[in-house]
């Protein structure tokens, strides 16, 4: 595919962003750095992104008049989270391009579609099976074994909508916890660590990836990402090629997060996120072009940055009362603090992150 | 001086910024990163800073109702340029603290006050003399010699309001160019290069300085800043101590730019700017805490970052039709582009800058 000059939105154009959380906030700052304006669409009041955006619409995804006015005021539409209702997307897409495209969204909104898509590309996932009934679940447990984890196919993130199953006898309770929603059973895989690749694909079809980061979760929420990850050169190369295969198969435009398990048998794809990703926040202080700018570049049709890192980084999420440590972090050498402007620190709530920068080894 | 807890503005507070240009824009982004909101006050329409600010007032500095409403809506006031009218400052200061303080502003608004202040601290400036009449100017030329440069004492920057004098006979024309404004004659000094120190002083009286950068000007406008500057360890230490002496003498709170000439006889102070400074833009990609965040920290009463750099940087200003080179810069490895969102590229207009990041040597 050749990039046409007409595809590039000129600086001064407006990027519409669905969702006004911290990802929208940091996308908006990156857009400003390249001379673009942003317009946030967010149902919740006083979203973090509104503090650094040119405009903000506070309206629900059912408000078709507000959606139409929003679409008319922007030149392209992107999003910071993947669970935008289909009807809203239909209305928006009729007016303006949505990048990344609808197919990427649809796949990432549904764990079964996602796993079928990934395995269809020849990539490896943990063993999985669709579960709608107790019979499905018992058959799946028989095939996959325990421990296993039952997840709703849609919504749910950071450990929500998930039940661990240690024995067949737990099947009825686990299924009941799904509240009748379609689910997928995933087998546990024996992995040494989790890494993620933050990769981008431009409007011209070019692909650029950042160095993989190594992720540690606490209570189902990302806690730290360390760059570089512990990977052999071959694994590093595999990880990036695998991400590129996903992006190309989707004719994707924008940044994607690809979570991988490192196992003795190779890399397994855990999940993909069609947006900037928490495990890519380190790029803000490790690269000349961070993931937020990379996404903006893709969405407006600019050439991608090459993603090379100039420094090593350990990113730590500040969750809930981690904010009590901010005074100490402010005094740390080489610690770059990023707060999201959220008034109230609740347990499990992402309040900010800190990038600790070290010379590249 | 001890810092009192009551001096610290909590995240979520609003910083009022006088001036909506690129410095206000980058201050606003830095404020957001620490969880603060900003309110811009700017006479011109559609200021660059408004795209990334919580609020923007478009009104003149004569509009006392607008100034009062602005002051009432913010918790502290800072500024991105030093030529705010005195009456406006009087009104604002009655309502909210202004940081850096009025004395720093008054001194930097008047070249004679500035030079008298600096030499009063025991620092060295180029030879200078106040000029109001032709007799003053001729006497000053006789004492200082030529070449020399005649400048209005107030306003004027980036080469405006300045006339070079090569011979006594040019005195009448040079004086006429001042349009009756009070002026100062400055002798030329023989210097090998210019450096600047970006230093900050916190509300608690602590001082932190970034590594000095080496500046190259073109047509009287900063073109590049290179870090590290060519300085001996002794000169580097002198430069930082000298900046600290200035900050302490002014009981200063915030970031200051101090321009120095490097001469065989030592460091000469060229001028000071009581604000974030163009020659400090490199800190955005060379330090965990950049000059904009450092200024915000000082103004809200947070501890200063230590200013250590993790990478070497060459900052290049993009002026006027330098914007034509943006497509090439976007493709450069390790080049971080910062555009100001200005619609029209006019000759001499600062449109953005690029920080080229290199491993620290």
From TrEMBL, chains A, B:
What transmembrane ranges does the database entry give?
none
Keywords from UniProt, A to Z, are: ATP-binding, Ligase, Nucleotide-binding, Purine biosynthesis
- Which enzyme class, named as a word? ligase
Q: Does the keyword Plastid apply?
A: no
InterPro entries per the record?
ATP-grasp, ATP-grasp_carboxylate-amine, ATP_grasp_subdomain_1, PreATP-grasp_dom_sf, PurK, PurK_C, PurT/PurK_preATP-grasp, Rudment_hybrid_motif
Q: Looking at the keywords, is Ligase present?
A: yes
Instruction: Supply the SUPFAM superfamilies for this chain.
Output: Glutathione synthetase ATP-binding domain-like (SSF56059), PreATP-grasp domain (SSF52440), Rudiment single hybrid motif (SSF51246)
GO terms under biological process? 'de novo' IMP biosynthetic process
Binding residues annotated for ATP, in chain numbering: 111, 151, 156-162, 186-189, 194, 217, 270-271
Give the coiled coil ranges.
Answer: none
- What function does this protein fulfil? Catalyzes the ATP-dependent conversion of 5-aminoimidazole ribonucleotide (AIR) and HCO(3)- to N5-carboxyaminoimidazole ribonucleotide (N5-CAIR).
Protein family (similarity comment): Belongs to the PurK/PurT family.
Assembly: Homodimer.
Q: What is this protein called?
A: N5-carboxyaminoimidazole ribonucleotide synthase
């Amino acid at each position: 595919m050749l990039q046409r000059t007409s595809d590039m939105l000129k600086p001064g154009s407006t990027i519409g962003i669905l969702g006004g959380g911290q990802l929208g906030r940091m996308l908006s700052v990156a857009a400003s750095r390249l001379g673009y304006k942003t317009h946030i669409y967010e149902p919740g009041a006083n979203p973090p992104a509104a503090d650094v955006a040119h405009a903000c619409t506070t309206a629900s995804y059912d408000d078709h008049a507000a959606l139409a006015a929003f679409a008319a005021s922007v030149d392209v539409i992107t999003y910071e989270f993947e669970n935008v209702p289909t009807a809203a997307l239909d209305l928006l897409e009729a007016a303006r391009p949505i990048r990344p495209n609808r197919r990427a969204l649809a796949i990432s909104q549904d764990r079964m579609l996602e796993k079928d898509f990934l395995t269809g590309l020849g990539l490896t996932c943990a063993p999985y099976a669709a579960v709608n009934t107790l019979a499905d679940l018992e058959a799946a447990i028989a095939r996959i074994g325990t421990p296993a984890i039952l997840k709703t196919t849609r919504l749910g993130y950071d450990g929500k909508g998930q039940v661990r199953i240690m024995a067949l006898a737990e099947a009825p309770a686990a299924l009941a916890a799904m509240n009748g929603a379609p689910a997928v059973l995933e087998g546990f895989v024996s992995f040494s660590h989790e890494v993620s690749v933050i990769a981008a694909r431009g409007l011209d079809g070019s692909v650029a990836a950042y160095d993989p980061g190594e992720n540690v979760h606490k209570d189902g929420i990302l806690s730290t990402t360390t760059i570089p990850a512990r990977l052999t050169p071959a694994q590093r190369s595999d990880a990036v090629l695998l991400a590129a295969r996903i992006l190309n198969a989707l004719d994707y435009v924008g940044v994607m997060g690809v979570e991988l398990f490192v196992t003795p048998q190779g890399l397994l794809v855990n999940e993909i996120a069609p947006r900037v990703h928490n495990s890519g926040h380190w790029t803000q202080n490790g690269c000349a072009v961070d993931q937020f700018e990379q996404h903006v570049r893709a969405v407006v049709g600019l050439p991608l940055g090459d993603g090379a890192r100039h420094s090593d980084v350990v990113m730590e999420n500040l969750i809930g009362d981690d904010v009590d440590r901010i005074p100490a972090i402010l005094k740390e050498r080489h610690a770059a603090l990023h707060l999201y402007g959220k008034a109230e620190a609740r347990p499990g709530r992402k309040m900010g992150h800190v990038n600790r920068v070290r010379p590249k080894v």
